[in-house]
Design goal:
Elements (H helix, E strand, L loop, with lengths): L12 H5 L27 E15 L2 E19 L2 E12 L2 E14 L2 E11 L8 E11 L5 E9 L5 E13 L5 E16 L5 E13 L2 E4 L2 E12 L15 E11 L1
Antiparallel strand pairs: 1-2, 1-13, 2-3, 3-4, 4-5, 5-6, 6-7, 7-8, 8-9, 9-10, 10-12, 11-12, 12-13
Length: 260
């Protein structure tokens, strides 16, 4: 079995941006002088490009090294008012090596819940023996006081053959028209996904985390989001990629996002 530490991430941005990455914007229409404009249909397409820096490449509680530079692109298409298809790619370059993630997902809204399924292919150019694949299922909703709750299960059916479950709660406060303060907290469990400090599969508590980000809308559809995050590693989690030890992590960084 390949160590779970070899699997990396296209979802760092979930902490930084929060919620949906792709919010479709209505198309522009000019207004005639004397004739009222016809209603403008909202485009079913939405696009996003993003790039960022992170002091530590942390993925699912594991420290893969310092100084991560990454970039990606995403697209979504609204199949209906309650069903959307999304996909994208994410590229990273850090001390571990190059990584390219390709992913696709489907989200269905039922009442106050968003239900999602998806697939990710993790590619490591120059080390194809580490490539792997996973699927996921998830559910999220908003409860009282604007608190968001989400639960997602990931299953690597290829190189690792293990599962990972993560719960997350989020809350956002609008500081002004262009700046918000977003908080995130959660916990995760490994089911043969990550590695125990003794080198065996970890079937135990993985880690907990808290984080805060400060998304600033520089101009329409352009957002810069600095963030800070603390990860409390489970005592049995081998989360230092270099030493195999268990250690808590404090990291930060920023992501620049442009939406279309």
């Amino acid at each position: 079995m390949l160590d779970g530490e070899l699997i990396m991430n296209h979802s760092i941005k979930s902490l930084i941006i929060g919620g949906s990455f792709l919010a479709a914007a209505p198309a522009f229409a000019g207004v005639a002088t004397e004739i009222a404009p016809a209603p403008v249909a909202e485009s079913p397409w939405a696009f996003e490009v993003h790039t960022g820096y992170h002091s530590i490449y942390e993925f699912r509680g594991v420290d893969f090294g310092d100084d991560l530079w990454e970039a990606g692109a995403d697209v979504s298409y609204a199949l209906s008012d309650s069903l959307s298809l999304s996909g994208g790619l994410w590229y990273a370059d850090n001390v571990v090596g190059d990584e390219l993630d390709l992913y696709v997902g489907l989200t269905k809204t039922i009442g106050s819940f968003d239900l999602s399924v998806g697939y990710t292919y993790y590619m490591f150019p120059g080390d194809t023996g580490s490539d792997t694949q996973e699927v996921y299922v998830g559910a999220s909703t908003e409860v009282a006081y604007g608190i968001g709750l989400g639960l997602t299960y990931f299953y690597d059916f290829d190189a690792i053959d293990g599962g990972y479950l993560e719960f997350e709660a989020t809350k956002s406060f609008e500081l002004c028209s262009s700046v918000s303060l977003d908080f995130s907290a959660g916990a995760a469990w490994s089911f043969g996904y990550n590695v125990d400090v003794d080198g065996s599969e970890l079937d135990d508590f993985n880690h907990w985390f808290v984080g805060a980000s400060l998304p600033w809308e520089i101009k329409e559809d352009v957002t810069l989001a600095p963030y800070i995050k603390f990860v409390g590693a489970g005592s049995n989690l081998s989360n230092d990629f270099k030493t195999g030890d268990s250690e808590d992590l404090l990291l930060g960084g920023a992501v620049l996002t442009v939406s279309f």
